[in-house]
Amino acid sequence: MKRAGSGVPHMKPHTWSCLICVLFCFSDAHWAAAQEAEPVRLAVEFLDHAACAHIARNQNWYRQAGLNVQAFDSYATGMALSAALAKGGIDAAYMCLFPAINAYANAHVPLKIVAGTHRYGYALIVNPEKIRSIADLETPGVRVGCTSEGSPPAALLHRLVDRFQLDASLVREARRMPPAKLLLSLRSRRIDAAFMPEQYPTMGQADGFRELVRAADLWPGMQGSVLVVTRRFLETHPEVVEKLVGLTERGIAYIRTHPAEAARIVAAELNVTGRQLVPMDFEGTSDNRLVSAEVIQTSLTRKMENCASVEPAAVQAAIDYAARIGYIQHSFPAKEILCLRYLHE
User: Fold this and answer.
1) Domain housing 74
2) In this structure, what DSSP letter does residue 65 have?
3) Residue 42 pairs with which residues in a beta bridge?
4) For range 119-128, the mean pLDDT
5) 200 and 326, same structural domain?
6) ∠ CA(139), CA(188), CA(282), 5° rounding?
7) What is the DSSP letter of 74?
8) Residue 242, phi then psi, degrees to nearest 5
9) 24: in domain
10) Are residues 330 and 230 in the same domain?
11) Is there a contact between 306 and 83 (Cβ–Cβ < 8 Å)?
12) Which residue has the higher pLDDT, 337 or 5?
């Protein structure tokens, strides 16, 4: 029978209790199935380049997909993540392409690129009081900072020197630091320019520094970050890899359709991790945050092109350039590290 005017079937209290019990049992069974699945050890760089992974974690998509993610470790730089991959203990990682190439060619990590996360996502920002043009980078006394050799910003610094026929000493004398320290050094005026990965250039612009050149200017079509998995994990758990690729695509779609909410999620994740990982002064900000959602939204939507697709030619170009500037000993065919069969884009 129905209650008059309610349109809702009348159920006795014990009937509702049984229904609720069934729902909880279903949820518990789903959780238990995820817990019994093969453990997955994920790693990310401390950048909004891995935004799709942070969104998937925050939205509980991994567990909903039946994945047993037992580790989600953040590394301050791609080079640090590359070193960790070489030691083992990581099944899948969201990392910049150049460190992935280095890990494969130099540390002989048997990895496969299964998806991308973005194109571009790097920029050179400068103190506008001292640097107004690219030529000003050669002014005596100008101090240029960059991430370590082997990183994408360092490769872009090489490309900047090549394209504009600048003095090669810009590369040799660049002050090498992790991106967080580069931004701190800019703020304290210990350096005048810094080539960094996002989200740091956008943070610098919020401080009043100027973006002089970005990756898209120097390298059209440049592949930014990628999702890599170890060959062993791909061979033994292809169904898990397929789910990871699908969730990567889902996270990227979320950025496109819900940019403000995606930025809020990513900023919150980075602020929590940043307290232990980067030497930034939280107390020096008015709201006790390392990075704001507004900065992350600008970074995600204006400074990089979020996409899961990967162009083999773009990967080959990066491999060839890495060999040319000495990051790896020899070039190799991109097909050795590509496995793009799970992509839908």
Assistant:
1) 37-120+222-336
2) T
3) 72, 92
4) 98
5) no
6) 145
7) E
8) -60, -40
9) no
10) yes
11) no
12) 337
What is the token pair recorded at 273? 């991790």
- In percent, how much of the chain has pLDDT > 70? 86
- Spatial contact of 298 and 306, defined as CB atoms under 8 Å apart: no
3-class secondary structure per residue, 191-243: CCEEEEECCHHHHHHHCCCEEEEEHHHHCCCCECEEEEEEHHHHHHCHHHHHH
pLDDT one-digit tens code per residue, 297-318: 999 999 999 999 999 999 999 9
Q: Say if 151 falls within a structural domain.
A: yes
Q: pLDDT tens across 131-159, in order?
A: 999 999 999 999 999 999 999 999 999 99
> Got the DSSP string for 112-138?
EEEEE-EEE-EEEEE-TTT-SSGGGGG
Residue 103 to residue 82: CA distance in whole angstroms: 5
Number of structural domains, the chain? 2
Asked whether residue 261 falls in the same domain as residue 323, the answer is yes
Instruction: Single out the residue in 164, 198, 218 at which a domain terminates.
Output: 218
Last residue of a domain, one of 187, 218, 249: 218
Would you put residue 143 in left (φ > 0), alpha (ψ -120 to 50) or beta? beta
- This prediction has a pTM of 0.87
- Higher-confidence residue: 25 or 182? 182
CA separation for the pair 2, 195 (Å, rounded): 68
Q: Is 310 left (phi over 0), alpha (psi -120 to 50) or beta?
A: beta
Residues shown for the chain:
345
The pLDDT, as a whole number, for residue 72 is 95
Per-residue pLDDT at 280: 57
Give the CATH number, domain containing residue 128.
Answer: 3.40.190.10
Give per-residue pLDDT as tens, 259-294: 999 999 999 999 988 777 766 553 344 445 689 999
For residue 307, tell me if it sits in a domain: yes
Do 297 and 243 fall into the same domain? yes
- Quick one: what percent of the chain has pLDDT higher than 90? 81
Alpha carbon distance 126, 144 (integer Å): 9
Domain shared by 265 and 177, yes or no: no
pLDDT score of 45 more than 70: yes
Same-domain check for residues 99 and 233:
yes
Q: How far apart, in whole angstroms, are the C-alpha atoms of residue 88 and residue 41?
A: 10
